[in-house]
Amino acid sequence: MNRVEFIKELSNYLAYEVRPSEVHRLIEYYDEMILDLMEDGYSERAAVKKLGDPKQLAYEAAGIPTEVKVPRRFNWLWITMLILGFPLWGSLALAAFLVLLSIDIVIWCIPFTGACLAGGTIIGGVAASFTSPFVLFDSFFMGVTQLGAGMFLFGFGLLCMWLTYKFSAVFMNMHRNLMRIIRRNIFQRKVVQV
Amino acid sequence: MDSQLKKGLIEYCVLASLVEIDSYGYQIVKEIHPHLEITESTLYPILKRLETNKKVSTYSKVHNGRLRKYYHLTDLGVASIQKFLQEWNDVEAVHYYIKRSVEE
Question: pTM for this structure?
């Protein structure tokens, strides 16, 4: 692996685990290390090799316990029990999955509502404003009212869009945290290295 | 050396390596290595912690057309070394107690 590949791999593993500023910092640190090792006489490959496995480094930095392979002991009794117990644990697992899914949907509902509101009112506002001159021929009062209402809607839509945009980071973080909690608790076996 | 004991000592080794002259990551690893086994990845969290605790300050300097991050020992860092050395008396008392327990 050369320097660029190492940095690329490291940043890939870090991407969703630590804050962007921390990713930047770690990459600067390891890049400097590689260049300093190379200046000290190491070849590019040897320098990268000396630092270790980027996946391990990234997980160490993110505080994710590295998985230690524990041999799975599946014997026939276990498999029979799993099959027999499926009606019980299967439905419980499905229920848990649906609860988590609904939490995630609720999180996304809010920005989705914001975006829809923004889109609808902006389109409606623009349409109302541009068609108001035609109403003017009919009745002056109606035309002016439509123009005002259209412009109001347009402004309201812009405001919604801005708010949704501003708060989208919050929802993204909520979603990410939820996924992290699920991953940590269900899919990652906790192995503590002593 | 016991890994827990090593963990406690590394921080002070890093601070000690910065007393004479400001240094950068790789140089610190090289300087400490004869005394304590340390890798580039173990040094990172220590430097970060020292920086957050304001025991070291950092600045970047151009070296061979690239930026290199230098670490500078602050007054707080010096005070931290002094405190560690003072506390060592307590450690020696414990050491003596443990030693005596085996000798008897």
Answer: 0.56
